[in-house]
Design a protein that fits this description.
The chain folds into 3 domains: 195 residues, no CATH class; 30 residues, no CATH class; 86 residues, no CATH class. Helix 1 packs antiparallel against helix 2 and helix 10 crosses helix 12. It is built from 13 helices and 4 strands. By secondary structure, it is mainly alpha-helical. Strand 1 and strand 2 form a beta hairpin. Strands 1-2 form a two-stranded antiparallel ribbon. The N and C termini lie far apart (118 Å).
Length: 369
C-alpha cells in the first residue's frame, strides 16, 4: 500500500502498525470460530486508534516529545495513553468520536478481568461505529484508502443476534456470562444510552443494528423470511427479501468509470468497460450488476464491482488489455456448427460418375470328340 510522502520516519512507522492492527481487528471479530474474538478485537482496535492518533500528533507538531509524557528522573520515558491522545486530537468533551473510542477503551480495560463470550446488540453497534470512524479519519488525515485491502463487507461486523446471546435480560445469556460480566455490561449499556440521549444519537457514537423476522403474515417488513416445505410443516428454505437497488447498486455506467478513475488512476473508456462486463459475465453476478425488469430500465452497478476491477488491476497491470484481447478473439472466431450439418460456405461438388461393372470375357470352349 502506498503511503503519502508527508508521513515519514516515526510517524510513518506508527501509521503502518496502526493499519495492521486495524485489519487484524476486523479479521478477528469476523471469524466466528474464535471464542476469544471480542477481547482480541478490543485490544487491536484500541491499539490501532492509539497508533493512528500518535502518528497524527507527531505529523502535526513535528515534535517527537509531543507524544511523550514529561520526563522525570524516577521513571523511563512513556508515550501518551489512548485517552490522552484522544483529548489532544478531539478537544471537545462531548465529541461523539472521542466518546465512542473512550467507551471501547473502557470495555477493553474491563475485558482483562472478565470472560466476555457474548455482548448485547447495542455494544456491537458501538464496535461498528468505532470501525467506521477509524476508516473515515484515516482517509481524512492521511489520504490513505483501504478499499483495496478492506472491503465494505469486511467492515461490517458479523455477529449472531439470537436473543439468547444478545439480550442481557435473557436467563441463558446471564448464566453464560456470569454475574460480574453481566453487571459491567449493564453499566456500559446505561452509560452508552445516556450519551445517546445527550448527544442526539449520532452515528459516530453508535450504530443501530436491528434484524426483523416476519414468520407469518407480513414478509415485506422482514430482512429474512423462513418458508415452509411442501407440507407446510418443515422449514426448508431461507428467502432473502429484495433490497432497494438504489442502495445496493447505486452506480450507472458512467459513474463506474468515474469511480474507477479515482481507484486506479485513470478512467477506462466505454469499450474497455464493456469488454470487462462481457468477458467476466458481470451481468450474471448479482452482487455487481442489476437491471430492472421494467422495459427501458438502465443497468446499475455496485461499489463492489468497482472494487473488484481495482483489485484485478492491482494484481495484474495488463488486466484491461488482456480482457480486451480476450473479447476480440471471441468476436473473430468462426461460429461453431452443430454435429451432422454441412457448413453453409462449403463449395458444391458434383457427385462422381459411377464406374460401369463389366463381366470378364469368357475363354473359348474347346469341343472334344
Amino acid at each position: 500500500m502506498a503511503m503519502p510522502d508527508v508521513y515519514r520516519g516515526l510517524s510513518r512507522r506508527l501509521l503502518d502498525k496502526s493499519i495492521e492492527a486495524y485489519v487484524l481487528s476486523l479479521e478477528t471479530i469476523n471469524r466466528l470460530s474464535i471464542k476469544y474474538r471480542v477481547e482480541n478485537f478490543l485490544y487491536l482496535i484500541c491499539n490501532a486508534w492509539e497508533l493512528l492518533l500518535k502518528a497524527k500528533i507527531l505529523h502535526d507538531t513535528h515534535d517527537r516529545s509531543a507524544i511523550y509524557y514529561p520526563e522525570t528522573y524516577s521513571t523511563r520515558p512513556r508515550t501518551l495513553a489512548l485517552r490522552d491522545c484522544l483529548k489532544k486530537t478531539f478537544t471537545g468533551d462531548h465529541d461523539p468520536v472521542r466518546r465512542n473510542v473512550e467507551h471501547v477503551a473502557d470495555f477493553r480495560d474491563e475485558a482483562v478481568h472478565l470472560v466476555i463470550s457474548h455482548v448485547p446488540r447495542e455494544i456491537i453497534g458501538l464496535f461498528q461505529a468505532c470501525v467506521l470512524n477509524y476508516h473515515k479519519h484515516l482517509g481524512d488525515w492521511t489520504g490513505i484508502s483501504l478499499s483495496r485491502r478492506v472491503t465494505v463487507g469486511m467492515m461490517t461486523i458479523v455477529y449472531d443476534f439470537n436473543p439468547e446471546e444478545s439480550d442481557l435480560a435473557n436467563v441463558t445469556m446471564r448464566k453464560r456470562l456470569g454475574r460480574e460480566a453481566v453487571k459491567y455490561l449493564t453499566e456500559l449499556q446505561a452509560a452508552l444510552r445516556a450519551d445517546v440521549q445527550l448527544l442526539g444519537n449520532p452515528a459516530e457514537l453508535t450504530i443501530d443494528i436491528e434484524y426483523r423476522l416476519a414468520l407469518t403474515k407480513n414478509p415485506a417488513n422482514a430482512d429474512i423470511v423462513l418458508s415452509g416445505g411442501a407440507t407446510g410443516t418443515t422449514p426448508t428454505h431461507v428467502v432473502e427479501v429484495p433490497k432497494d437497488p438504489c442502495k445496493t447498486h447505486p452506480l450507472r455506467f458512467n459513474d463506474v468509470k468515474t469511480h474507477l478513475e479515482s481507484a486506479i488512476g485513470f478512467k477506462p473508456n466505454q469499450y474497455d468497460l464493456r469488454c470487462i462486463i462481457q468477458a467476466h459475465a458481470i451481468k450474471k453476478r448479482a452482487e455487481f450488476y442489476y437491471k430492472g425488469s421494467i422495459k427501458g430500465s438502465s443497468a446499475q452497478y455496485s461499489h463492489e464491482f468497482v472494487e473488484w476491477i481495482a483489485k484485478q488491476c492491482e494484481n495484474d497491470t495488463d488486466f484491461i488489455r488482456k480482457t480486451r484481447e480476450r473479447v476480440a478473439k471471441t468476436q473473430t472466431a468462426p461460429a461453431a456448427r452443430s454435429p451432422g450439418t454441412a457448413p453453409t460456405s462449403a463449395p458444391h461438388t458434383a457427385a462422381p460418375k459411377p464406374v460401369p461393372i463389366t463381366s470378364p470375357a469368357r475363354p473359348p470352349v474347346r469341343e472334344t470328340a
